[in-house]
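Supplementary Methods, section 5.1.

A reviewer requested that the exact input to the structure prediction be made available. We therefore reproduce it here, unchanged from the version used in the analyses.
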Amino acid sequence: MLRGPLYHDDYTPQLSGHETFPLRYGWLKKAFDAVQDSKDTEDNREVFSGPDAIARFGVGKNMVVSMRHWANATGIIEESPGQKGISTTALGQLIFGEQGLDPFMEAPATSWLIQWHLCGKATKTTWFWAFHHHPSISFERETLISGIKQLAEDREWPRASLHTIRRDVACFIRTYVTQSPPRNTSFEDSLDSPLTELGLIRPGGKRDEFRFVRGSKPSLGPGVFCYAVTDFWNRSFSNANTLSFEALNHEPGSPARVFMLEENDMVDMLAALEETSDGIYRWSETAGLKQLIRSRPISTEEALVFVERHYSADRHKEPVHVG
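The structure derived from this sequence is encoded token-by-token as follows.
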């Protein structure tokens, strides 16, 4: 039986919103600052939609829409249904605030946090399906498109046309794979997504063929991993005091799938969680039963302290080539 949020009856797919533009350096900081500077305005949604939005952000109208989309999708800002205002989040404050840890997105931890928010939950349908449900390590552009199209038909999603899915898949690939820009491309259009540096997807041997890169991720710090485990636990198994190795590895939305880790990599990182979490988490392999035990529930926002603790260490590491 297929499981996970994509197969829930109340799931609402998201196959657009980015206006075909992948996330770019500088966009999240610009979006965060605009929302933060307008926080005292009763309805500050006009920072993205008002007549001066293009001048404020220095990009075209479609790019402003895309910037807003990515800031929401990565958890930097939030727009609650039924409310007028847009607000910044604790994660946004930690990274891009006045005392932000990485306003220019130079630390690997920032890109890994973005990856977690894009693929750890099913907000972005193509991203979630590709990382959690695609059946093989390699894929072609057309097989990814047809797989999501079949899912949309099976789930009877409205407004999931082939054209929309094709554009979403193109944006997905450009988010992770460096591509040579066409001639006469503007500087803004030639910039790669920061997630290309994670090396999670690489070109295959043929045109429009790609492969996921599983294995050790040296630049994935223990603080971000601890944060991801906490968020996954709270979202999927909030009432449990233990979490099986099977769930952490194979459940849709799990850290192993989002970060493309092999089982031995997961064991190493889970075993280190006791120190990282100050004893909140403990890895156990008693009687052949592999599981993670927590001494108490901890909120996802609280877990940001573990992220903050390891940012300074990440900054002083030598650059790591992943893949």
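Residues 178 and 195 are 9 Å apart (CA to CA). These observations are discussed further in the main text.
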